[in-house]
Amino acid sequence: MFLINVIISVYEIVRPIRLHALQKRDLKSRPDTVKYAMTLGGRDIEMHLQKNNGILTKDYSETYYTKDGMLVTTTPEDLDLCYYHGKIVNDSKSSVSMSTCDGLRGYFQTEEQRFLIEPLSQDGDGDHAVSKYEDVNEETPRVCGVTNTSWDESEEGAPPRILKSRSHSSGPTFFQQQKYIEFFLVADNREYKKMDSNLEKLRKRIFEIINYINNVYKEINTFVALTGFEVWTDSDKITVSPVAGETLDRFTQWRNSDLVKRQQHDNAHLIYS
To answer: Which residues form the Peptidase M12B domain (predicted)?
Structure first.
């Protein structure tokens, strides 16, 4: 589930309230912890959120193309990292993955239900729309990807047999071992145009994706960080096909012949329409 271009057809209007005032030291940066309260379906919900400070690798970079096809790679500074994970008070099975950049935008799960939330105004203040996940008509982009990691299915710890328990003497299981994945995302030209050809707008969506993925994977002791993203601003670098397998093959070839020569990463994924 990726939070890009969702259309909420059935939703409830809520007004989240921040439960603590910003201190002077927080005015130039996002606080490490923040609390929000709202009433949803007649139930009071309080979210306790912790800032995800590791969403990017230290060598994070962004790549785009000029109108004449020249590749440009930058290392942006002073990015507004407003991405959080958290829990809902008195709900041990809850999970929250949230952006606070412009209001609340993201995903949260209670013991009973999964929800998406997004602001109804551009400045993010005031009313928000909350929808049950099954009521969302998602125009999410398709995603294909390739990894540097492969497993021999005969090995212990290899999917899908990694869920089997192992003896204490054999050491930690695959899931118990701390893992770190450097993730690289590529957005095709159509996705760029769907974000109004606005790199900052697309960046926020990319960061929301990584924040969500990070929240999911930490349950299996795996930390995912974004090492970079590339936007095909001028034109697609491969032929994007409605057939997912064909697009994956072409993306894999492009990655092996181009991307790996200039960008270190463990996993690369293409977001395309």
So the answer is: 179-273
